[in-house]
Inverse folding.
């Protein structure tokens, strides 16, 4: 196993951490499996693409814009649609968000066509050479932004009133309502946060992959794996889950063959669910795991 | 076995009304007779549409066993469909085995997988079980797609039916109709047998069911095996129908989604919900989608969202509410958080 493969895996893990954290948050707090996550990533990527194409904005500077746009969309989705379904059963929200995802992706297909688009800043392709190991600038920047966003989310959850209300809701919905938390609003804020993180991931992914209406679909699959590996709603867990998945995929592809990359990640998902459903670092705080 | 009228978990979710048997029986017999005569009067296109309706109704009925009666959200039940299709394809094209035994072999492979996965995965509940089954489906597709023996990404071609195409399509129509009838019989049996009561007790409250002396794990695994067998059989028929299969076609998560939507449209845990849902969805497809070049998934997504919002308990529930808008809106408001 070469050092380069390990570094590639770690950097890929940084990308995955960005992809999974918002998904994990919404699942852990609101008990909503947000299948629109991939579509939100895609829309974030399109926001970045158009800002880059029309105004020449650097994709990394576009992250706040993509986050803000997705947060608004996310708040509306949860407040106006998902909140009406949450009580009818855990599974209905899954189906509802699946329907919404189809609508979002097909609308994007109408609006932007299926053409492959790419965001190509001057530094794409360039990298740092450390003793023969190449570290692409973009991937290391994504890794850094992923760490930064995780840290900011941690601070938000720990030190703000809204963050505390979110944690209280995740812990016990009824008790949170008793002390005056408007859980309809808190669910929507949580969803907005998750959507904003998806937007950030999309903005950064636009520099790595082609931007198309279906680019979010594989990322949705990865989000499941990352969230389950890290433990639901566990913010630092998503980072660990992303890194584990990134390394497992890269190393596994080296050992068995690159064609089995997807099989490895889903096999890992089934394994972790069967053996340790609370995740690798999971402590039973955010999402109570029912086994 | 006659159900105990004082049983504490009598009929918790079932929509089977205990009315006089007369009229429903006449209607059922009329429906069966009409279905048997349809191919004689319809064009090939409509025979195909109705065969598809029966196929999806049969799949929804198989899922009904797990999701409707037992309350386990199997979102990856398409894995049994895909395995059934692949088993049939491999047995007929490489093993030279006749079609019908090969199709049954497809069901048995599903049973084997369900038995193997039962103990580790049926411990999970709610979302976790759903996600695990999705994981199994995706992993199975990737493995089949990358093993050369199964044809890899090239797929497998099955031996052709010896006879004229019209005869073949009628054969498929009748076999799918027979399978659908048999599965509806199973659902009817589940709605009134001891086994079915045990499953519905598990759905209502698994701990309580265990306390009442139901061996929940054993019953859940049995239910999953039955569901897997039924799904695998349909997968085998589908492979023979299309003569060619490839992994993305039969291990497609969209099949799961469609079957779920049918179950929701009709009403999970009811005997006739699946056929009502399948007919609605397929006819919608034939009449609306057939006229559109683009926007199919947009409409499908909107239909899914509307169904979940306005009729979360299915079409049968809407019938019971006599299509009252006020009742639907009151439910919607009551569900809001």
């Amino acid at each position: 196993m070469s050092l380069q493969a390990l570094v590639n895996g770690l950097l890929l893990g940084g990308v995955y951490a960005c992809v999974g954290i918002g998904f994990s948050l919404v699942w852990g707090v609101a008990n909503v499996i947000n299948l629109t996550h991939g579509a939100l990533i895609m829309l974030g990527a399109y926001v970045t693409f158009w800002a880059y194409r029309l105004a020449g904005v650097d994709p990394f500077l576009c992250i706040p814009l993509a986050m803000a746009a997705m947060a608004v969309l996310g708040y509306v989705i949860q407040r106006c649609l998902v909140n009406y379904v949450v009580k009818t059963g855990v599974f209905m929200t899954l189906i509802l968000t699946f329907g919404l995802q189809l609508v979002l992706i097909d609308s994007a297909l109408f609006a932007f066509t299926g053409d492959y688009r790419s965001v190509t800043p001057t530094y794409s392709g360039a990298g740092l050479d450390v003793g023969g190991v190449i570290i692409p600038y973009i991937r290391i920047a994504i890794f850094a932004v992923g760490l930064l966003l995780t840290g900011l989310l941690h601070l938000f959850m720990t030190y703000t009133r809204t963050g505390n209300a979110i944690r209280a809701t995740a812990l016990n919905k009824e008790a949170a309502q008793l002390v005056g938390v408007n859980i309809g609003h808190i669910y929507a804020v949580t969803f907005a946060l998750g959507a904003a993180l998806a937007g950030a991931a999309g903005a950064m992914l636009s520099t790595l992959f082609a931007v198309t209406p279906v680019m979010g679909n594989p990322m949705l699959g990865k989000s499941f794996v990352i969230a389950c590996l890290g433990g639901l709603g566990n913010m630092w867990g998503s980072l660990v889950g992303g890194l584990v998945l990134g390394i497992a995929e890269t190393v596994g592809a080296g050992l068995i063959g690159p064609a089995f990359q997807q099989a490895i990640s889903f096999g890992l998902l089934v394994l972790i669910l069967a053996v340790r459903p609370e995740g690798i670092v999971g402590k039973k705080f955010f999402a109570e795991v029912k086994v | 076995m006659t159900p105990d009228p004082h049983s504490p978990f009598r009929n918790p979710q079932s929509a089977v009304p205990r009315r006089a048997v007369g009229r429903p029986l006449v209607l059922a017999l009329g429906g069966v007779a009409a279905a048997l005569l349809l191919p004689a009067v319809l064009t090939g296109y409509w025979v195909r549409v109705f065969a598809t309706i029966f196929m999806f109704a049969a799949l929804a009925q198989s899922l009904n066993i797990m999701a409707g009666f037992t309350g386990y959200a199997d979102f990856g039940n398409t894995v049994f469909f895909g395995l059934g299709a692949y088993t049939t394809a491999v047995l007929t094209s490489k093993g030279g085995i006749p079609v019908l035994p090969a199709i049954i072999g497809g069901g048995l492979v599903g049973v084997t997988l369900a038995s193997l996965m039962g103990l580790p995965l049926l411990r999970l509940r709610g979302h976790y079980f759903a996600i695990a089954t999705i994981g199994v489906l995706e992993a199975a597709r990737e493995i089949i797609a990358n093993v050369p023996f199964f044809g890899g990404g090239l797929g497998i071609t099955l031996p052709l039916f010896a006879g004229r195409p019209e005869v073949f399509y009628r054969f498929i129509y009748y076999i799918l109709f027979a399978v659908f009838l048999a599965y509806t019989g199973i659902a009817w049996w589940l709605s009134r047998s001891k086994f079915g009561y045990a499953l519905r007790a598990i759905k209502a409250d698994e701990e309580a069911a265990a306390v009442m002396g139901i061996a929940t794990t054993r019953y859940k695994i049995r239910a999953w095996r039955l569901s897997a067998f039924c799904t695998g059989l349909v997968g085998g028929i589908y492979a023979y129908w299309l003569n060619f299969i490839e992994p993305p076609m039969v291990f497609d998560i969209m099949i799961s989604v469609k079957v779920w939507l049918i179950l929701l449209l009709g009403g999970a845990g009811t005997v006739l919900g699946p056929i009502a849902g399948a007919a609605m969805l397929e006819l919608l497809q034939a009449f609306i989608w057939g006229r559109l070049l683009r926007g199919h998934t947009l409409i499908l997504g909107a239909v899914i969202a509307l169904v979940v919002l306005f009729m979360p308990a299915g079409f049968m529930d809407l019938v019971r509410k006599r299509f009252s808008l006020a009742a639907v809106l009151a439910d919607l408001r009551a569900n809001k958080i």
